[in-house]
Amino acid sequence: MDLSTPYLGLTLRNPLVASPSPMSRTVDGVRRMADGGVGAVVLYSLFEEQLRRDVERDSRLAQAGAESFGEALSYFPGDVDPAESDPGPRQYLSLVERSANALDIPVIGSLNGATPGGWSRYATAMQDAGAAAIELNIYYLPGDPHITGREVEQRHLDVLDSVKRSVTVPVAVKLSPYFSAMGEMAVRLDRAGADGLVLFNRFLQPDIDPGTLRVVPAVRLSDPSEGRLARTWISLLHGRVEASLAATTGVEHGDDVVAYLLAGADVVMTTSALLRHGPDHAAALLDGLADWMRHRGIDTLREIRGLLAAPADADHTGSERSSYVSAMRRANTGAYGTWSDDYR
User: Fold this and answer.
1) Tell me: the pLDDT tens digits for 59-96?
2) How far is CA 143 from CA 146, 159, 177, 247, in A?
3) What kind and span of H or E run contains 97?
4) Could you give the angle at which helices 281-295 and 27-36 cross, rounded to 10 degrees?
5) 76 near 5, Cβ under 8 Å?
6) Would you say 310 and 245 are in contact if contact means Cβ atoms under 8 Å apart?
7) Are 159 and 119 in contact (CB under 8 A)?
8) According to DSSP H, which parts of 165-226 are helical?
9) Rounded Cα distance, 127 and 268, in Å
10) Residue 45, CA atoms < 13 Å, CB-side half-sphere
11) pTM for the full model?
């Protein structure tokens, strides 16, 4: 059985990719995920705020007129700000280089930011350090009600353009699901040169604690129910864009991997499952995929990828509406159970 798959112009040994997580902050953690069986690893994200701090610090040192700029930098071991626990850009680039040298699977760098500046410089540095590709994790939620949808979209295109002009390795864009016309945005990024689209980013959704009268930020691990939205859009985009399609969110079991591939995903990314169960859970996910294929006499992923994707010539707007109406009718007749049990 052949589980190999193309992604971003690379050939992976299987479609399971470890997405950014605390496990990818060390070479040992990256190696454990590779030993667990994943086909590639996306390192934890280097944040724009860290890049800005790095530039500001270098500027202060230069203005101070240090006798030896290189010597002055040595006083910042690991490039860690004493007030911050996050490693800085230099330590990140070292991780990229050491991981790429230690593993026989692709290591993908990740940049997380909101503005166009600074991306190109560090994307180039990641490439030079040995990253097989770059993932742009554009975390931007416009809080100003005067910012238009087109301005938000253009920001993504500008970031992609600046990075594509700077590197030769493939570039993927990790997208939010909150565009007013998600399909058009995907097509525009595809035409602008994105080698891959990662669907979808999970933005921070803080809660309110009535007891302490505080807004509580929290990052919650995903569950399988969250995969529906990503599968819907992957199904709609399969065959309509040249870019690779990566699924992320809601991967817990082998069946979740299968469902994404049937929708049309080239690769399936997971973080939450590996954090819950450990890096060895990658083997369980791949075993589930292989067992499903074996029982159906399927030898390659090409035979199943996109098998249940939306047909290119169908009226998807009408079809979605029809499916929605049908689902609501069934719910109102109790076909799915009671509202009190299942829909609160």
Assistant:
1) 554 556 554 444 433 333 343 333 334 567 889 999 99
2) 9, 19, 16, 27
3) helix 89-102
4) 20
5) no
6) no
7) yes
8) 182-191
9) 23
10) 17
11) 0.82
Query: Residue 174 is which amino acid?
Result: K
Cα gap 131→135, rounded to integer Å: 10
The pLDDT value given to residue 81: 37
Cβ count within 10 A of residue 65: 8
Average pLDDT score, the chain: 84
Peptide bond into 200 cis (omega under 30): yes
214-216 and 207-209 beta bridge pairing: antiparallel
Helix (H) or strand (E) holding 180: none
Query: Which fold does the domain 5-313 belong to in CATH?
Result: TIM Barrel (3.20.20)
User: Comparing C-alpha atoms, which of 288, 279, 291, 287 is closest to residue 18?
Assistant: 279
Give the helix/strand (H/E) hosting 135: strand 133-138
Closest CA to 207 of 219, 198, 193: 219
DSSP one-letter code for 240: T
pLDDT tens string 237-254: 999 999 999 999 999 999
Q: Residue 126 and residue 7: Cα distance in Å, rounded?
A: 19
CB-based contact 125:93 (threshold 8 Å): yes
Spell out the residues 6+ positions from residue 223 whose beta carbon is closer than 8 angstroms to its own: 250, 252, 272
Of the candidates 240, 232, 218, the one whose C-alpha atom is nearest the C-alpha of residue 323 is 232
∠ at Cα 258 (105, 9), nearest 5°?
A: 35
Task: Delimit the domains of the chain by residue range.
Answer: 5-313, 314-344
| Residue 97, both tokens | 């280089």
Point out which residues pair with 198 in neighbouring strands. Answer: 174, 246
